Amino acid sequence: MIERKPPLTDQTDASPDAPEPRFRDDVTVELVRSSAEDADVLFAARVSTAGEQSLEELQKDPERSRGLINFLMRDRHGTPFEHNSMTFFISAPIFVFREFHRHRAGWSYNEESGRYRELQPVFYIPSAERKLVQRGRPGKYEFFEGTPEQQKAVTEAMEDSYRQSYARYQEMLDAGVAREVARAVLPVGLFSSMYATCNARSLMHFLSLRTKDERAKVPSFPQREIEMVAEKMEQLWAGLMPLTHEAFNTHGRVAP
């Protein structure tokens, strides 16, 4: 991760009290709260055949539990995977959230508002590992490493643009312009934050589309920045529901 605080190229462009721009090449994902474990899947699935069971009864035979979860995943009996909840705090560039919000079924979002608070100057710049060159046609794109010259051009262009746009934003605020109007000058590389709540079934659908994994039955080619978010979410979810996560991978990373 990088986080740099370079000086403005032209200090006269900024308000004396304006915070300095900061640049990040990573994302933040935190599990805020959860009610999610493999037993939730078992409770929901077995009520149709055995009625209500205690947690002790469900835990008597771990291999049977693993087998049931694998059966449900394999045959795509999806509703038992919905009886749980996870809330994540996510900080990422705005363009990542625009892709994220395409996922609507089983998701709830609350995002930071540029109408009600002054937005902070935290901006995204790709790391040196981020592939910069795109070749091919829609549906057949391939990405390749950029040259040092391309990386330098990207970094300089983004930093200059971010500094200028945030300076103009501050100028409008200082002139008394409403935050909801002034924010229009800010770019999609600005970091925003949100709470995102989902269940395991909706998360699996998200992961199937927003990660690239050789175990997937259906190939996916996500933009790297949203994949960075998805990878962190998956790691946290795997710790909560290891049997469900294992079955998801075993059966081709397809949401049931």
UniProtKB/TrEMBL annotation:
<feature type="binding site">
    <location>
        <position position="205"/>
    </location>
    <ligand>
        <name>FAD</name>
    </ligand>
</feature>
<feature type="binding site">
    <location>
        <position position="79"/>
    </location>
    <ligand>
        <name>FAD</name>
    </ligand>
</feature>
<dbReference type="GO" id="GO:0070402">
    <property type="term" value="F:NADPH binding"/>
</dbReference>
<keyword id="KW-0489">Methyltransferase</keyword>
<dbReference type="GO" id="GO:0050660">
    <property type="term" value="F:flavin adenine dinucleotide binding"/>
</dbReference>
<keyword id="KW-0545">Nucleotide biosynthesis</keyword>
<keyword id="KW-0808">Transferase</keyword>
<keyword id="KW-0274">FAD</keyword>
<feature type="binding site" description="in other chain">
    <location>
        <begin position="111"/>
        <end position="115"/>
    </location>
    <ligand>
        <name>dUMP</name>
    </ligand>
</feature>
<keyword id="KW-0521">NADP</keyword>
<dbReference type="GO" id="GO:0050797">
    <property type="term" value="F:thymidylate synthase (FAD) activity"/>
</dbReference>
<comment type="similarity">
    <text>Belongs to the thymidylate synthase ThyX family.</text>
</comment>
<feature type="region of interest" description="Disordered">
    <location>
        <begin position="1"/>
        <end position="24"/>
    </location>
</feature>
<comment type="function">
    <text>Catalyzes the reductive methylation of 2'-deoxyuridine-5'-monophosphate (dUMP) to 2'-deoxythymidine-5'-monophosphate (dTMP) while utilizing 5,10-methylenetetrahydrofolate (mTHF) as the methyl donor, and NADPH and FADH(2) as the reductant.</text>
</comment>
<comment type="pathway">
    <text>Pyrimidine metabolism; dTTP biosynthesis.</text>
</comment>
<dbReference type="Pfam" id="PF02511">
    <property type="entry name" value="Thy1"/>
</dbReference>
<protein>
    <recommendedName>
        <fullName>Flavin-dependent thymidylate synthase</fullName>
        <ecNumber>2.1.1.148</ecNumber>
    </recommendedName>
</protein>
<comment type="subunit">
    <text>Homotetramer.</text>
</comment>
<dbReference type="GO" id="GO:0006231">
    <property type="term" value="P:dTMP biosynthetic process"/>
</dbReference>
<feature type="binding site">
    <location>
        <position position="210"/>
    </location>
    <ligand>
        <name>dUMP</name>
    </ligand>
</feature>
<feature type="binding site" description="in other chain">
    <location>
        <position position="183"/>
    </location>
    <ligand>
        <name>dUMP</name>
    </ligand>
</feature>
<feature type="binding site">
    <location>
        <begin position="199"/>
        <end position="201"/>
    </location>
    <ligand>
        <name>FAD</name>
    </ligand>
</feature>
<dbReference type="GO" id="GO:0004799">
    <property type="term" value="F:thymidylate synthase activity"/>
</dbReference>
<feature type="binding site">
    <location>
        <begin position="99"/>
        <end position="102"/>
    </location>
    <ligand>
        <name>dUMP</name>
    </ligand>
</feature>
<feature type="active site" description="Involved in ionization of N3 of dUMP, leading to its activation">
    <location>
        <position position="210"/>
    </location>
</feature>
<dbReference type="GO" id="GO:0006235">
    <property type="term" value="P:dTTP biosynthetic process"/>
</dbReference>
<dbReference type="InterPro" id="IPR003669">
    <property type="entry name" value="Thymidylate_synthase_ThyX"/>
</dbReference>
<dbReference type="InterPro" id="IPR036098">
    <property type="entry name" value="Thymidylate_synthase_ThyX_sf"/>
</dbReference>
<feature type="binding site">
    <location>
        <begin position="102"/>
        <end position="104"/>
    </location>
    <ligand>
        <name>FAD</name>
    </ligand>
</feature>
<feature type="binding site">
    <location>
        <position position="111"/>
    </location>
    <ligand>
        <name>FAD</name>
    </ligand>
</feature>
<dbReference type="GO" id="GO:0032259">
    <property type="term" value="P:methylation"/>
</dbReference>
<keyword id="KW-0285">Flavoprotein</keyword>
